[in-house]
Structure formats: C-alpha cells, structure tokens
Amino acid sequence: MAQLRHDQYQFISKKTEIIIIGPENASAFTKYWQENHLSFIGLPDPTHSVLKLYGQEVNLFKLGRMPAQMVVDKQGTLRFIHYGHSMSDIPQNAELLALLEKINSETE
Questions:
Q1: Which pLDDT does position 49 carry in this prediction?
Q2: Which tops the pLDDT comparison, 45 or 87?
Q3: Which residues does 82 contact at the CB level (< 8 Å), separation at least 6?
Q4: How far, in Å, are 37, 42, 73, 98 from residue 65 at the CA level?
Q5: CA distance 76 to 68
Q6: Beta bridge partners of 43
Q7: 1 falls in which pLDDT band (50, 70, 90)?
Q8: Sign of torsion, CA 108 103 101 15?
C-alpha cells in the first residue's frame, strides 16, 4: 500500500481508483486506515468472498493471503492480474501506470 500511496496522484491522473481489499474485519480495517491516513477505498473481506472470486492464494506458511494486483477497466473487464508469491512480489508502479496509459488510450 505504501508503494501505491507514493504515486497516488499519478494514478489519479490516469483516472484510476485504487481499492484495497484485505482479510481483516471492518473495525480492524477502519482502525488501520485511520492510523495510516490512507485515502484509498478499503474493503474488508473477512469471509474471503472477494478472494475466492478472483482466485487469490492463501498460504498459511507465509502469513495468509498472497498479494494480488488487478486492473479492471471502466467496462468491468479484468485487464491485468498478478498473483504474488510473497509480500514483496508485486508489480512496480511504473508497470501499472504504463498499463493504465495503454488502457486509457484504447478507450478514448
């Protein structure tokens, strides 16, 4: 999340909404959001219903959910998905921003 926050205004300039989905319950999620002053949309998913819809992996030996990044376009089409194998296995913002630029140019 810190990586996304670092380039948040670049994502906004690409007409992108960042939504973070986490396994915590609503009160824990809200507390974390407030303590870290996050301005993204946060969706608690303690029953893993979203996780199951998108096939996100859970690995108990690696402390739970593995990271997954997805880009869904304005029509609701999943345009990119990356399933990480560890918490450090996530695409760089530059890669995501380039993809968003491409998607936006296709729809203009």
A1: 86
A2: 45
A3: 68, 69, 70, 90, 91
A4: 23, 16, 24, 26
A5: 17
A6: 21
A7: low
A8: positive
> How far is 94 from 31, CA to CA, in rounded Å?
30
2-107, which class in CATH?
A: alpha beta
Angle at the Cα of 43 from the Cα atoms of 106 and 67, rounded to 5 degrees = 70
Bridge partners (DSSP) of residue 82 are 69
Q: Tell me: the pLDDT tens digits for 42-83?
A: 888 888 888 778 777 665 565 666 778 888 888 888 888 888
Q: In the 8-state DSSP scheme, what is residue 86? A: S
| DSSP calls for 18-78 | -EEEESS-HHHHHHHHHHTT--SEEEE-TT-HHHHHHT--EEGGGTEEPPEEEEE-TTS-E
Question: How many CB atoms are located within 10 Å of the residue 33 CB?
Answer: 19
